[in-house]
Specification:
mainly alpha, 4 helices
Length: 129
């Protein structure tokens, strides 16, 4: 076994272990954090980073072109779907009233979701001038 293979295998094992540890910390955050927004943060950011580290470690161990392409696709779709899913969960929690509005530092959705009475503007068609 060459030195490069030995170093690559060791680094791959370290990356897999580090990714798994980060995923475990994300799970602990999901269990311990108090509200939906904090939990969705713990569900996406550490999980995405942990999975990417695991994929990088596995890629260092496998070293074949087709395997690397498959791992690349897995990482790409994780980066595309994880944040979108977390955003949708947080937005649905906001709309169903499961979020304490007093605890938010900034509430951009309040302006968008409150109903405003339409501006009647100048009256037309009354025949009066």
């Amino acid at each position: 076994m060459s030195a490069w293979v030995q170093i690559s295998d060791t680094l791959g094992a370290v990356l897999v272990f580090a990714g798994a540890a980060i995923c475990l910390l994300g799970v602990v955050g999901m269990l311990k954090l108090p509200d939906v927004l904090s939990r969705s943060h713990a569900a996406t950011k550490p999980q995405t980073l942990g999975l990417l580290l695991v994929l990088a470690g596995v890629a260092l161990r496998l070293r074949s072109g087709m395997d690397l392409a498959t791992l690349g696709l897995i990482g790409f779709f994780q980066l595309m779907t994880g944040p979108v899913a977390a955003h949708l969960v947080a937005r649905s929690a906001y709309r169903t009233g499961q979020i304490e509005h007093a605890e938010l530092l900034r509430d951009d959705l309040d302006e968008q979701l409150t109903e405003r009475a339409p501006d009647p503007g100048p009256e037309r068609g009354t025949g009066q001038k």
